[in-house]
Amino acid sequence: MTNIEAARAGYKAFAAGDAEGMQRVWADNIHWWSSEEVQPGGEFTGVGAVMQMLAEIPKHWTSMTVEPTEFIEAGDYVIVRGTQTLTNDKGSAEGKFAHIMKFQDGKCIDAEMHADTAKALKLRG
């Protein structure tokens, strides 16, 4: 499986709520970063820590969708561009994202999840 195929499989698994599918494309010691400004966010190391963080999403958001529109391969990296939508009882916020993932031996070892957080912050009040 190429890096882009692995990345596509991970996003497909996330959209389907398939935890095992997500974990299949991550290295055991994956390092994950997303802005602490929008919860759940921060730095996490290891599949267990990332899965625990993802399990926190329903505590902060009624729903969260991530719609990739472009996958760009750059050596060991895959850059994914798209739109993220977060919803809570105050409404919804849609913003662009660019995720940068580094792969080694077919597994994602590093994920930087950059997104437009300003609209989401307004919903958090």
TrEMBL record:
Protein name: Ketosteroid isomerase-like protein
Location of the SnoaL-like domain: 8-109
TM stretches of this protein: none
InterPro entries linked to this entry: NTF2-like_dom_sf, SnoaL-like
Molecular function as annotated in GO: isomerase activity
Matches recorded under PANTHER family: BLR2505 PROTEIN
UniProt KW keywords: Isomerase
